[in-house]
Design brief:
Layout: H1 4-18, H2 28-44, H3 50-56, H4 61-69, H5 78-85, H6 88-107, H7 111-121, H8 132-160, E1 164-175, E2 178-185, E3 190-196, H9 202-214, E4 219-226, H10 230-238, E5 242-245, H11 247-285, H12 293-334, H13 348-368, H14 373-406, H15 411-431, H16 436-455, H17 460-476, H18 482-498, H19 503-515, E6 518-519, E7 525-526, H20 527-532, H21 539-546, H22 557-565
Parallel strand pairs: 1-4, 4-5
Antiparallel strand pairs: 1-2, 2-3, 6-7
C-alpha cells in the first residue's frame, strides 16, 4: 500500500511532467560563443564571480555551469574535431558513421524510420532523441527553414535579375482526384511552382502563372513547351506566347500507332513459319512404306511451298516494320534548325517537306499492314503535332532574324554567324542530349566548326560577342519537355511512398531541387544559379546554422517514479 508521502510525490511528479514551460533554445554555435565570452571575462576580471559573469551574458548561472561541464560543445571547432578524429576512438566513430550512412542509403529504410536506423547504427541515440515524435518535429522545423531560405533567396535573386523573356515547360500530374500543376523554366530547369489544385482549367493555369512567375520575377513568358494538351495551348494564346509541341509526345503517337500492331503481325508469321519447319522435319524423319512414299513426298512439297510463302510474307512484314521504324527515327532527326548531317541551317520549307515525306511513308506502311482505324487516327494526331512544330520552327527563324538585326552585324559577321557560330553553338547545346552513338558524329562536326572559328580573322571581342549571341539563339530553340517529365516521375515516387504531399512539403521539395541539386556537366551549378545568373547561399549550411536538432533523450518522470515505487 502506498504511503501518503509517496502518493503526494507521485501527484506532484505527474503535475510537473504535464507542465511545458516556455524554454529558451540556443544553437550550439551560440552556446560555444557564450562559453568563450565567459572565459575571456573571467580572465580579464578575476574579482567577478561566475554568477556575475552569467548575468552579464544574460544566461542563467545554472545553464552556464551545465554548459561548462559539457566540454563536448567545444568540439564544434575544427582543430578540436581534427584532434578527436586523429585518435583511435575518433577513427572508429567516423567509420561507424560512414558505414551507417552508406548502409542506410543503399539498403535501409527511408523517412523517419531510416533516420532512426541510422542513429542506432551510428550509436548516436545516446546524444540525439530518436523517437518518432522528436524526429517528426525536427523535420517540420527543417521544412519551415527550407521555405524561409527559399523565400529569402528568391527575393534577393529577383531584385538582381534583368527583365527578360523565358521559356516555361508546363505539365500536369494526376494523383487520385486532384491534378498537380507543374511549371519549370526550361533552360535553367528551375521549378517555378508545383501545386495541387481543384481543376486544370485554363483560368487556373493562368492565375498560377501570374501569381508564381510574372508576379514574383521580372520575366515575361515568351514561349511555352508542352504536349498537345488543349488547355495549355489555350493558356499560351492568352499569354500571347509561342507554343512549342514536345517532340517526344508527337513521336510517341506514331510509335503507339504502328509498333505493337506490326510487331504482332511479324510474330504471328514467325510462329507459323516455325511450326511449318517443324512439320517438314517430322515428315522427313518418319520412315514411310513403299506405297505411301509418294503421299509423303507430296505432303513435304506442300509444306515447303507453304514455308516459301510464309518466308516471303515474313520478309515483307519485317521490311515494312523496319522502314516504318526508320521513318520514325528520321522524323526526330529532321526537326532541328540545323541539318545534323551537314551542319548547315535548313529552312522551314525544307523541314516541312521532309516531315511530310516521312509521315506519308508511315501512313502508307500502316495502311498496307491493315492496322486498325484507331492506329490511323493516332498517325493523324502525330501529323498535326508535327505541323504545329513546323509552325514553331517558322517563329524561331523570325526570332533568329530579329536577333541578328538587333545586333547590328556587318555582312561578313552575319555570314560568319550563320555558317559557323550558330551551328557550333547549337551542336554544343545538343551534344549533352544525344545518345552515345550520335555523340561521336556530333563531336566531329564540332571540331570541324571550331577549326573554322579559330581560323577567322575577326577580332576576338567580336568572336566572343557572336558566341554569346549564338548560345542565346541555340538555347531558345526547345523541342523537349523532359525536365518536367522527370520531375513528375520523382513526385510520383514520393507520392507512392508517402501517399500524400502537403503544399508545404511540395514547396520545400521545389526549393531543395532549385538551390541544392547541382548539374555535373557544367561545373556543378544549381538551377537557381542558372535562372538568376547569380550565386546564392548554401542551403545545407543554412539549415545547420538555423535548425535546432533534437536534444539528448530523457527518461520520463513517470517511468522513474514507477521504478522508485516498485
Amino acid at each position: 500500500m502506498k504511503t501518503e508521502a509517496c502518493q503526494n510525490s507521485e501527484q506532484n511528479a505527474i503535475v510537473n511532467s504535464a507542465i511545458d514551460p516556455k524554454k529558451v533554445y540556443r544553437r550550439p554555435f551560440e552556446i560555444a560563443c557564450k562559453i568563450i565570452a565567459f572565459q575571456e571575462i573571467a580572465k580579464a576580471d578575476s574579482t567577478k564571480s561566475a554568477r556575475d559573469i552569467a548575468k552579464i551574458l544574460d544566461v542563467p548561472n545554472t545553464s552556464m555551469q551545465t554548459w561548462r561541464r559539457q566540454g563536448s560543445l567545444q568540439d564544434s571547432h575544427e582543430d578540436e574535431i581534427s584532434a578527436f578524429l586523429s585518435t583511435v576512438a575518433g577513427q572508429t566513430h567516423l567509420a561507424r558513421i560512414l558505414n551507417a550512412s552508406m548502409y542506410n542509403n543503399k539498403v535501409g529504410s527511408s523517412g523517419i524510420l531510416g533516420v532512426q536506423q541510422f542513429l542506432r547504427h551510428a550509436q548516436l541515440v545516446k546524444w540525439i532523441a530518436s523517437s518518432t515524435g522528436a524526429l517528426q518535429t525536427f523535420w517540420e522545423r527543417m521544412e519551415f527553414s527550407i521555405i524561409v531560405f527559399g523565400d529569402q533567396q528568391e527575393k534577393a535573386g529577383a531584385e538582381k535579375m534583368k527583365k527578360r523573356k523565358i521559356c516555361v515547360t508546363l505539365d500536369e500530374m494526376f494523383r487520385h482526384t486532384y491534378p498537380c500543376l507543374v511549371a519549370i523554366e526550361t533552360i535553367s530547369n528551375y521549378i517555378l511552382f508545383n501545386k495541387f489544385t481543384e481543376n486544370r482549367k485554363a483560368e487556373t493555369w493562368k492565375n498560377e502563372l501570374v501569381k508564381n512567375v510574372t508576379g514574383k520575377f521580372p520575366v515575361e513568358i515568351g514561349q511555352v513547351q508542352s504536349d498537345l494538351c488543349g488547355t495549355i495551348r489555350s493558356v499560351t494564346e492568352s499569354l500571347e506566347a509561342i507554343h512549342s509541341p514536345d517532340t517526344f509526345h508527337a513521336m510517341q503517337e506514331f510509335s503507339k500507332a504502328t509498333s505493337a500492331g506490326m510487331a504482332s503481325q511479324e510474330k504471328a508469321i514467325e510462329t507459323a513459319l516455325n511450326k511449318v519447319e517443324e512439320a517438314i522435319k517430322k515428315q522427313e524423319s518418319q520412315p514411310a512404306r513403299i506405297n505411301s512414299k509418294e503421299k509423303q513426298k507430296e505432303k513435304i512439297d506442300e509444306l515447303k511451298k507453304k514455308k516459301d510463302d510464309l518466308t516471303k510474307t515474313y520478309g515483307e512484314r519485317k521490311k515494312r516494320k523496319e522502314e516504318t521504324q526508320k521513318a520514325r527515327k528520321e522524323l526526330g532527326q529532321i526537326f532541328h534548325p540545323i541539318n545534323l548531317t551537314t551542319g548547315e541551317i535548313q529552312s522551314t520549307t525544307v523541314v516541312k517537306k521532309k516531315i511530310e515525306e516521312q509521315i506519308d511513308i508511315i501512313k502508307v506502311k500502316a495502311e498496307d499492314a491493315g492496322l486498325a482505324a484507331s492506329s490511323l487516327e493516332r498517325i493523324e494526331k502525330g501529323k498535326r503535332a508535327f505541323l504545329l512544330m513546323g509552325e514553331y520552327l517558322r517563329n524561331f527563324f523570325i526570332f533568329f532574324i530579329a536577333l541578328i538585326k538587333n545586333a547590328n552585324l556587318t555582312l561578313e559577321q552575319r555570314k560568319f554567324f550563320k555558317e559557323i557560330v550558330f551551328p557550333l553553338s547549337y551542336f554544343r547545346v545538343l551534344l549533352r542530349k544525344q545518345p552515345k552513338k550520335e555523340k561521336e558524329r556530333i563531336r566531329f562536326l564540332i571540331s570541324e566548326l571550331e577549326k573554322k572559328f579559330a581560323a577567322s580573322q575577326l577580332p576576338e571581342e567580336i568572336k566572343a560577342m557572336l558566341l554569346e549571341l549564338g548560345r542565346e539563339a541555340a538555347i531558345t530553340f526547345q523541342r523537349s519537355s523532359s525536365c518536367v517529365e522527370g520531375w513528375n516521375g520523382n513526385l510520383s515516387l514520393l507520392l507512392h511512398r508517402f501517399h500524400r504531399l502537403s503544399e508545404r512539403t511540395l514547396r520545400a521539395l521545389s526549393i531543395v531541387h532549385n538551390f541544392s541539386v547541382r548539374r555535373r556537366d557544367d561545373g556543378g551549378s544549381t538551377a537557381a544559379e542558372r535562372f538568376f545568373g547569380e550565386p546564392h547561399d548554401d542551403l545545407f549550411e543554412y539549415l545547420v546554422e538555423h535548425v535546432r536538432i533534437p536534444g539528448k533523450p530523457q527518461v520520463q518522470v513517470r517511468k522513474k517514479l514507477n521504478e522508485l515505487i516498485a
